[in-house]
Amino acid sequence: MSAIYNLFKNPNPKTGDDKKNDRIHARLVNQNIIRIEHLVELVSNFTSFSSGDVKGVLAALRQVMVITLKSGGIVELEGLGTFSISLKSISATTEKEVTPSKVRFKKLVFRCAKDLRKEFRGMNFERADEASRLDTYPAETRKANILQYIEKHNAISSAQCQNENKCTKYLALKDLKSLYEEGKIIRLGTRHNAQYALPADE
Hints:
The protein is α+β, with helices and mostly antiparallel strands. 36% of the residues lie in helices and 21% in strands. The strands form 3 sheets. Strands 2-1-6 form a 3-stranded mixed β-sheet, with no helix packed on it. Strands 3-4-5 form a 3-stranded antiparallel β-sheet. A two-stranded antiparallel sheet has the order 7-8. The two termini are 42 Å apart.
């Protein structure tokens, strides 16, 4: 089994514009997202546990991880890696200014275990059977393509935007943000697993 990649232009570090940079890079395309139901089924097939047992264990693991991380702990899953929390706070010059109310959650940090990282060193790659994605459409064309895709499939993700418009993640998110601010689409789901659809009155 091979992972499928295609070639993209690097975005300009100052503008994010794909067309103002001559350097290119490889990126995975047509990535399948395995949802929890499918994951549970796969794990169940590899073990003697039922799907219900696996789902219950995953739910319990999530709850224990949240409790541990919220108390400032680090969760290590042997063979997978460690999870920890990073913080953000106001910019200050004295210690007294940085009170508990000024400290916020920033992000969940995952550090991959060395043994797990080694598993991917022998990956097989295959060039996508399609044209390189070195030239992108104009912004208005990209946004029109997004709306047409939603009309046909009811929703779209940022990854599907990238595939549909042959563009970088930066441009895909930029187009979705623009359409969202214009009121032409709505966001469904969480920030990191969002789908975009047409407003209910469309």
